[in-house]
Amino acid sequence: MTYRVVMSTIDNRDQAEQFARVLPESRLVACVNIMGPMMSLYHWQDAIARDEEYLLLMKTVATEEQALIERIQELHPYEVPEVIVLPVLDGAPSYLSWIDASVRQQER
Question: Other CB atoms closer than 10 Å to residue 108's CB: what's the count?
Fold first, then answer.
């Protein structure tokens, strides 16, 4: 099995918590970590924007990657939401097995 960490940011704690509930319930991720608030500075509409945001770290399996990306885009209020996928090169076997057990395509 191949694993992924998917990152996204959002500017509202309540919405971050909504993601952290909805995505594991739908079995697309094993868990969502919410980090923040943090400060983000970025290019937007020919200017440098500055916003307080929360970082979401989501653990999943590669076979659910595309479905997760689509679901994030459906739920996300941003015009251009951050969705970055990082490969997991290795990990504790017991943790990776837990991800397998938590993310099951047939459960949705």
Answer: 11
State which amino acid sits at residue 1. Answer: M
Cα–Cα distances in Å, from 45 out to 8, 67, 80, 104? 20, 29, 12, 40
Residues 72-91 have pLDDT tens digits of 999 999 999 999 999 999 99
Give the relative orientation of helices 13-25 and 65-75 as an angle to the nearest 10 degrees.
140
Are the beta carbons of 58 and 31 closer than 8 angstroms? Answer: yes
Residue 108 lies in a domain: no
CATH number at residue 19: 3.30.70.120
d(CA 53, CA 80): 14
Domain region containing 39? 3-103
* Residue 11 half-sphere exposure toward CB, CA atoms < 13 A: 11
Confidence of residue 106 (pLDDT cuts 50, 70, 90): low
